[in-house]
Specification:
Blueprint (H helix, E strand, L loop, with lengths): L14 H4 L12 E2 L4 E3 L8 E2 L8 E6 L4 E4 L5 E2 L6 E10 L11 E2 L2 E2 L2 E9 L6 H4 L6 E10 L4 H7 L11 E5 L14 E6 L10 E6 L3 E3 L1 H9 L29 E3 L4
The structure holds the ligand NS(=O)(=O)c1c(F)c(F)c(S(=O)(=O)CCO)c(N[C@H]2CCCc3ccccc32)c1F and zinc ion (ZN).
The site of the ligand NS(=O)(=O)c1c(F)c(F)c(S(=O)(=O)CCO)c(N[C@H]2CCCc3ccccc32)c1F has 15 residues, from strand 7 and strand 10.
Length: about 260
């Protein structure tokens, strides 16, 4: 598809010119505000399968020009939803070195330093993510809010290799690890709403689960995430830092945000 960026002449205010859904309804991210929330006792704890990958296995860590991403094996899946949602990829959104505020979702208007998304597709109904990506029941994304605080050994499995993918389209193989350790301890407390991809083509195809509890990474780990990558490739003369790769807040309209927990 056409080029798009976060900011500048191909920034998010222009996405809808080439990607009409970006100007449509059911868009993400949103500000998860207390007055919007409705407790839903039918929301079960999230259960993930095969997330604990052996270090003998390798994962592809890449810079796709928009984010740092890791491709995930298809044996990983979410088992607690109506359909089996198989893992495809995880990636991050972050701020800039000076501004540790780069999460996409906000909670009562608090923006976190960063956010991690684990993207899954409905493997019961679709053979791969490309056919699922534009279907209303196609995707399920797990969102983890990240703040600066204690050092996080789980995230270090990714961040220690970040200098190998400084430029767009660079990829490295890294030892696999327990992806469950990237998620918060409690998977029973989360926000749930119907939304979209937060990048073009912005399809309204995502069942969003944003965990209530955030995780922390250290200031040094955050700086590695926020200052190591470029959205340009190594040959480009202009080095474009890959920073503040988060979409602005979208209108909730008449959507309800469900919560799995009472205050
Ligand atoms: N925030 S978000 O909406 O979850 C989200 C991103 F922000 C994001 F940058 C990506 S991307 O890194 O692929 C770059 C632009 O598509 C994705 N990719 C998904 C959806 C698009 C098709 C596809 C195909 C294979 C694997 C993952 C994906 C994404 F879903
Ligand atoms: Zn994302």
């Amino acid at each position: 598809g056409a080029k798009w960026t976060y900011g500048g002449p191909e920034g998010e205010h222009h996405w809808s010119k080439h990607y009409p859904y970006c100007g449509g309804a059911f868009q993400s991210p949103i500000d998860i505000k207390s007055e919007l929330l409705r407790f839903d006792p039918t929301l079960r704890p999230i259960e993930v399968q095969n997330y604990n990958l052996p270090p003998s296995e390798q994962l592809t860590l890449g810079n796709n020009g928009h984010s740092l991403q890791i491709s995930l094996p298809s044996r990983m899946f979410i088992s607690s939803l109506r359909h089996r949602y198989t893992a495809a990829q995880l990636h991050f959104h972050w701020g800039s070195s000076g501004l540790p505020a780069g999460s996409e979702h906000m909670v009562n208007s608090k923006q976190y330093a960063a956010e991690m998304h684990v993207v899954h597709y409905n493997a019961d109904k679709y053979p791969n993510i490309s056919t699922a990506v534009d279907k209303s029941d196609g995707l399920a994304v797990l969102g983890v809010l990240i703040d600066v605080g204690e050092f996080n050994p789980a995230y270090e499995h990714i961040l220690k290799f970040i200098n190998g993918i400084k430029y767009r389209d660079q990829k490295v193989q890294v030892p696999a690890f327990d992806i469950r350790a990237l998620l918060p301890t409690r998977l029973d407390e989360y926000y749930r709403y119907d939304g979209s991809l937060t990048t073009p083509p912005c399809y309204p195809s995502v069942l969003w689960t944003v965990f209530r509890n955030h995780v922390t990474i250290s200031q040094k780990q955050f700086l590695a995430l926020a200052t190591s990558l470029f959205s340009s490739n190594s040959q480009d003369s202009a080095h474009m830092p890959l920073q503040s790769n988060f979409r602005k807040l979208q209108l909730v309209d008449s959507r309800t945000v469900l919560v799995s927990f009472k205050e």
